[in-house]
Design goal:
heterotrimer; A alpha+beta (about 180); B mainly beta (about 425); C mainly alpha (about 260); A: about 180 residues; 60s Ribosomal Protein L30, Chain: A; four-stranded mixed beta sheet; about 40% helix; about 10% strand; B: about 425 residues; mainly beta; Rossmann fold; Neuraminidase; 2 domains; about 45% strand
């Protein structure tokens, strides 16, 4: 599916030229059907979209974009290899949907000072933001903030709970 | 036995101004803190506080506040006064009190002041030397009887220990009840008279008193991100001081109350800035790319202590406001955070990780000698009493947040807890003026 | 191959440019038909996207490297901070030990000198007038206090004040048993301030006036250090050799030996 975006754009551009494509190429397809079955282009043209209603691709559990959390190791801030595709997918979505804004909330486990943990969570949120921007999101689309240890997903006091709380969440306008 | 007082000779009555405390705008909270002493000084001064004369209800209330304050301080032992009916006008029978084991005696009364309010008077005596130590009178409304009691306890404390008492001060703390109810409370130093200044569905952290005690700065997450507010307690009016892109946290007042040192992430990383109390005039102070947070003004108003991970682990550093060198202050251990400097400038309280527990520690700033004061697992957010003698911290007992007041020498420990709630983020207020 | 990352704007502008060129060429020669144009555009866009992809990856790689360098740098900084602190504390402790040791030795030495004075044959019958003219002038208590005060300054690392205080002491009590020590410490205080020339002068006084004093060989070591500091290795060597010749059994001799080995 994702491979089709560029050919679609190109097809649109080409269609703008004098020559008219009459047959679908191997990787191409008719313009009108593409616009209908792929939400991305529709959202671009939607103009003032209701921000509370997220497009299905962000919520469809089968779509990678429905996943929003990046987990970190103790005292670590680098994005582990297993989350690179996830971050890349969101970067691409933001690139294609410039009217969307994202809030990244960094979280930490409960050990240590609240204020220091707030700074640690910020470091995690910043790491995700940097990656997103490098992969095509615009700086002004993304805000990274920290919740520190204040909003634990798992309130337990054990390693499993802590691991769940060392996390960055990517939220779209309407989700926060 | 105790330092003689020179300031008050005989019965000099200090007509104190009316104790009109600013009422908080929100409804009183139901849950009140209870104090439990878990460690006391080795040599407690035996003191007799005779029942105050006057109308029985008021008298009982007043007497119990004075006795409770002195006892909770861990420095005094109450001598039984059963069967004695004396007031500030009675000549004390020194020999009798000596036989009962008292080193000091206080006697007083409460009665109408003539303008519809009440006046509490008392006198204090040195039983050993058979000499009066002074006295005082406080005019108060019936509702503020407890406040008068705290004032009296402060006077007695100061006469007998040579240090100002802090019973009249107030404390702020956050109560979390249930998964999504946070309340910022203001209470008397004994945990009584608690009132909620702010209720929120989202976390409230880092409350800190303005030096004049009229405002609190804190961080609220009500906008789904940390934002710094300054809240006037009397009016309930709130100002957003810092709501920049990213996180805004860790406010600390300058000693003159004009500025705050804060941590902002607007320029990337966590950097310390100073900002005027109205939110204007932002100036960046730290430039290191890592974490810089938990700023705290030393009493000189020029030095800022803070926590940074620039050396690979969180440690405490200090720097000058005019941009001098940054000096590292802590060296023992791999986690030293939350620096707070006592009002006399001599001691730094902080949290140090030792043997996997987060413990309250103090450093004598002149000698750099460090002392660990607790053996807890999860101490947090230290806050000095304005007399530099006690430190209030949040800690955890049985999975529940409680407050604990620990003396700077580690000998006296009091625990303050609310039966049903999780108490955290304490801040000890300044002297009342 | 994961999803292709794209930079829409750059891709589109490139494509637009290409189309313009294509259009022109088509008008001129009609070399490309539509099929060919589309194929080329497609190829180009794939290339551009691959390039953006590679660049992004490289940038992320760089970001990770910078991050890990920062962490290394922070660790090194932490180690440096700790080492500096430890060095400072060690220096201070060493100075404390040294001063303490000197204080204790001094007691022994003064006692020794006093004993030697009284034990010297013939001198026991020294003219009383001479003894009277010297001794009563000095108040032993004040003398000890002043010396102690100077030493305290040195201990507190107030080197300038310490040097002045020792100098004043030596002037006030030129004949005290502590005077050679005072010159020696004045030398040390000056040397610590890198005032090597004056330090040498002070050390020399000890060596010349009290050649038998235990501080004399130590002073020579001081002289040698200062000469070294001044870049005069040759003189330093001569001085150290002099220690070996004049004071072969002193502790300073072993220090001299060690230094000469280097």
């Amino acid at each position: 599916m994702k491979r089709l975006i560029i050919p679609t754009l190109l097809a649109l551009l080409v269609a703008g030229c004098s020559s008219t494509p009459d047959t679908a190429e191997q990787t191409g397809a008719p313009v009108d059907s593409r616009g209908a079955n792929d939400g991305k282009i529709a959202t671009v043209t939607a103009g003032n979209m209701d921000s509370r209603k997220l497009p299905p691709e962000l919520t469809d559990p089968k779509n990678i974009l429905s996943k929003r959390s990046v987990y970190f190791d103790y005292d670590k801030f680098d994005i582990k290899a297993e989350y690179k595709d996830l971050v890349a997918a969101h970067a691409k979505f933001l690139n294609n949907n410039r009217q969307f804004k994202m809030l990244i909330q960094g979280n930490t486990d409960e050990r240590g000072s609240r204020e220091y943990n707030l700074a640690l969570g910020q470091k995690r949120a910043d790491a995700i933001k940097k990656q997103l921007v490098l992969l095509g999101a615009r700086e002004e689309q993304v805000e990274s903030v920290s919740l520190g240890e204040e909003k634990p997903k798992n309130p337990g006091q054990n390693e499993a709970a802590w691991a769940e709380n060392r996390r960055g969440d990517m939220l779209y306008s309407g989700e926060f | 036995m105790f330092r003689p007082s020179l300031s008050l000779r005989g019965l000099s009555l200090i007509a104190c101004s009316v104790l009109a405390f600013s009422m908080l705008s929100t409804t009183p909270a139901n849950a009140e803190l209870t104090i439990e002493i878990t460690g006391a000084g080795a040599n407690r001064i035996p003191v007799a506080i005779a029942d105050f004369g006057g109308e029985p209800g008021s008298s009982r209330a007043l007497t119990s506040v004075v006795r409770g304050d002195l006892e909770h301080s861990g420095l005094f032992r109450m001598i039984d006064t059963t069967g004695v009916a004396i007031t500030e006008t009675t000549s004390p029978a020194y020999a009798d009190w000596k036989n009962r084991g008292a080193d000091a005696l206080a006697a007083g009364s409460i009665g109408p002041s003539g303008d519809g309010r009440q006046e509490a008077r008392f006198r204090l005596y040195d039983v050993t030397r058979q000499a009066p130590l002074g006295g005082a009178a406080f005019v108060t409304s019936s509702a503020m009887l407890r406040a008068a009691g705290h004032r009296i306890a402060d006077v007695i404390y100061e006469k007998l220990t040579g240090e100002p008492g802090v019973f009249s001060t107030r404390i702020a703390y956050v109560v979390k009840s249930g998964p999504a109810l946070y309340e910022l409370h203001i209470a008397d130093s004994d945990g009584q008279n608690a009132q909620a200044a702010l209720k929120s569905r989202e976390p409230i952290i880092s409350p800190t008193w303005s030096p004049d005690g009229t405002r609190l700065a804190y961080v609220s997450f009500e906008n789904k991100k940390p934002v710094i507010y300054v809240h006037s307690l009397a009016s309930g009016q709130r100002i957003v001081v810092a709501n920049f892109k990213g996180s805004n946290s860790a406010p600390a007042w300058s000693p003159d109350g004009r500025k705050l040192a804060v941590t902002l992430s607007k320029d990337g990383g966590s950097q310390i800035f100073t900002i005027n109390a109205d939110g204007s005039g932002v100036q960046r102070l730290t430039t290191n790319s890592g974490i810089n947070t938990e700023p705290f003004f030393a009493p000189d108003g020029q030095t800022i202590y803070f926590t940074s991970d620039r050396g690979g682990s969180p440690q405490i550093y200090r720097t000058s406001l005019n941009g001098g060198d940054v000096q590292r202050v802590t060296f023992e251990g791999s986690y030293n955070v939350s620096p707070r400097i006592s009002a006399d400038g001599k001691t730094m309280a902080f949290i140090s990780r030792r043997e996997n527990g987060f413990r309250l520690a103090v450093m004598d700033l002149a000698s750099r000698q460090v002392q660990i004061l607790t053996d807890s697992f999860k101490d947090e957010s230290p806050s000095f009493a304005p007399n530099s003698r006690m430190i209030l911290i949040a800690t955890e007992i049985g999975g529940r947040g409680v407050l604990s007041a620990v003396s700077v020498d580690g000998r006296i420990k009091q625990r303050l807890s609310i039966p049903a709630g999780d108490v955290r983020e304490p801040a000890w207020g300044p002297y009342l003026r | 191959m994961p999803a292709r990352r794209l930079r829409c704007s750059s891709a589109i502008s490139t494509v637009a440019l290409l189309l313009a060129v294509l259009g022109a060429q088509q008008a001129h020669a009609g070399l490309f038909d539509d099929e060919e144009a589309r194929r080329q555009v497609n190829d180009l866009s794939i290339k551009v996207n691959e390039r953006v992809d590679t660049l992004s990856k490289a940038q992320i790689e760089l970001l990770n490297q910078i991050q890990s360098l920062r962490e290394d740098n922070a660790k090194l900084r932490g180690q440096l901070e700790t080492l500096q602190y430890e060095l400072e504390s060690t220096k201070k402790r060493q100075q404390d030990f040294y001063v303490d040791l000197d204080g204790r030795l001094r007691k022994l030495e003064t006692a020794g000198v006093a004993a030697a004075d009284t034990a010297k044959p013939g001198e026991g019958e020294a003219p009383p007038a001479d003894a009277a003219s010297k001794k009563p002038a000095a108040d032993p208590a004040a003398e000890a206090r002043e010396y102690e005060a100077a030493l305290t300054l040195f201990k507190a690392n107030k080197l300038k004040d310490a040097a002045n205080a020792f100098e004043a002491f030596a002037k006030t009590y030129p004949d005290s048993a502590l005077t050679p020590n005072a010159y020696y410490w004045q030398g040390n205080a000056l040397a610590a301030q890198r005032d090597c020339k004056r330090a040498i002068d002070a050390y020399r006084v000890v060596v010349n006036k009290w050649p038998q004093n235990p501080k004399a060989p130590d002073s020579l070591i001081g002289v040698a250090s200062c000469q070294q500091e001044l870049g005069d290795a040759k003189s330093a060597k001569t001085t150290l050799e002099a220690v070996l010749i004049k004071y072969p059994d002193s502790p300073a001799a072993s220090t001299a030996k060690q230094r000469l080995k280097k």
